[in-house]
Specification:
- By secondary structure, this protein is α/β, with parallel strands linked by helices.
- It has a six-stranded parallel beta sheet with strand order 2-1-3-4-5-6, sandwiched between helices.
- α3 links the parallel β3 and β4.
- α2 packs parallel to α3, α7 packs across α9 and α8 crosses α9.
- The longest helix has 14 residues.
- The termini are far apart.
- The model has no long low-confidence stretch (mean pLDDT about 85).
């Protein structure tokens, strides 16, 4: 996999390069400031990009802006965004307009190498990878919404879907059958007023888009 890394912290940036190359991936470019990100993405058109949200010179949302602009110019460009904290507004903006091939992880997750690499590979394949803490924020802050009608089990299934897991993984995690998971997913979509679907990450994107526009 060809990857572009955008991270202003030199130590973390070099750590990401080492981690990815050790896993057999090729880092085709690195960027340390916001203005460097978009040109690198447009030049190399990588299989995936790993971007910090806040970068110089303003340390606001330079990385996020570059990601959104790059995806506008290269539709479907897989992007995994890293953030120091859960910033719901950034997650919502990232997901606006469809989130195929998008991920949002807290930087602490990078230290869990297998989880990080798995998330990156899911994103590169067109899936979704949201940090569990981000999912929790998205779910718990929505009061007085159709989410209130979900059972505890359905909320668990929705959270695991939002993290990007497939039916088999959800079934193993909750120690239930895949048939039961399929049924719960159908109930979730029904209660949220969304058409029932089991079409991989599209179901996750539909749910998250719904949540982010409440």
């Amino acid at each position: 996999m060809r990857v572009v890394i955008a991270e202003d912290n030199a130590l973390l940036r070099e750590g990401l390069v080492l981690l990815l190359t050790s896993a057999g991936h090729e880092v085709v470019a690195v960027a340390g400031t916001g203005p460097e990100v978009l040109p690198a993405l447009l030049e190399h058109r990588p299989d995936a990009a790993v971007l910090d949200v806040r970068m110089p010179p303003g340390f606001r949302d330079e990385g996020l802006r570059a990601a959104l602009e790059a995806r506008a110019r290269i539709p479907g460009l897989p992007v995994l965004v890293l953030s120091q904290y859960v910033e719901e507004s950034y997650a919502a903006e990232l997901l606006t307009g469809g989130a195929s091939g998008l991920g949002y992880l807290l930087k602490d997750r990078v230290g869990r190498v297998d989880e990080f690499l798995d998330a990156l590979e899911r994103v590169a394949a067109g899936g979704t990878a949201l940090d569990p803490e981000v999912v929790t924020e998205l779910l718990t802050r929505r009061k007085g919404s159709p989410l209130d009608s979900l059972t505890p089990r359905e909320r668990e299934v929705l959270a695991l879907m939002a993290e990007g897991h497939d039916n088999g993984t959800i079934a193993k995690t909750l120690v239930v059958t895949e048939r039961a998971v399929h049924k719960h997913i159908g109930n979730v979509f029904l209660k949220l007023g969304l058409p029932p679907s089991d079409s991989g990450h599209r179901r996750v994107l539909a749910v998250l888009t719904y949540l982010n526009n409440q």
